Amino acid sequence: MDFLLFDKYTIYIWASYLLTFATIAILFVGTKITHKRNTIQLRIKYERDNK
Amino acid sequence: MWKWIQAFASPRNFYQISEKIIPWLMVPFIVLSLIGLYWSFVVSPTDYQQGDSVRIMYVHVPAAWMSLFIYIIMAISSGIGLIWQIKLAYIVAKVSAPIGASFTFLALVTGSIWGKPMWGTWWVWDARLTSELILLFLYLAYISLNNAFDNPKTADKASAVIVIIGLVNIPIIYYSVDWWNSLHQGSSISFTKISMQQDMFIALLLISFAFKFLYSALMLMRARNEVLVREQNSRWVREIITGADK
Known about the structure:
The structure holds two protein chains of two kinds. By secondary structure, chain A is mainly alpha-helical.
């Protein structure tokens, strides 16, 4: 695992990659949650309309 | 071709076809990301001036490219929306904005993280950095304006004008290092020459293509969400949502 330690730059490099990963994860999970929420809200709306 | 575009631009067809396309975009994104990470961390050599900090470039540069690429896509979509009144074009612009803003944020922050050990400071009011920061503000202005109206049609048109006016910032970002005396390094890649080691270039390309596939997949996923909301009074949306119950 020594190759993952980059001398004095380790913290800068890993901070950049972790931030990139976190941003991608937030975008992806956020999109999934929005889809789920929209589907549930529309389902409730249609059920209310049918009553 | 035009007929195919028109058919795909119908919200119902788009919703159904895009569902099938998304996995075909996610798979290349994951594969290219994994190979790209291997190339960035293992294969790519240490730079003779920057040392290992050059590895930050493999996320910083593709993120910066994406920030420009997505803005251009938004401007083209907004133009198509204004000229041909295609609803889906406005949706593409709207859903691309948060993705573009995220990549711009990433480009700025990873650049700042690289700047600290290399330049000795997190930030300088350099032409390239400042114009990229203005791009982030343009994205945020677009998002704010789009959310400011209750009527989606008015919101689409008003924000389309903003994004088209902001297009003037794109050549400023690209040529800023040539036009002004900049602390930011010049372009290592141009249309005519590549002045970097081959493995470094491969790492950049791999991550760059991975980001393009990610953007395409996220854009389609978010556009499907937006289509659902905008077309909620259509029979086909009702059928899909109530059918999902069964």
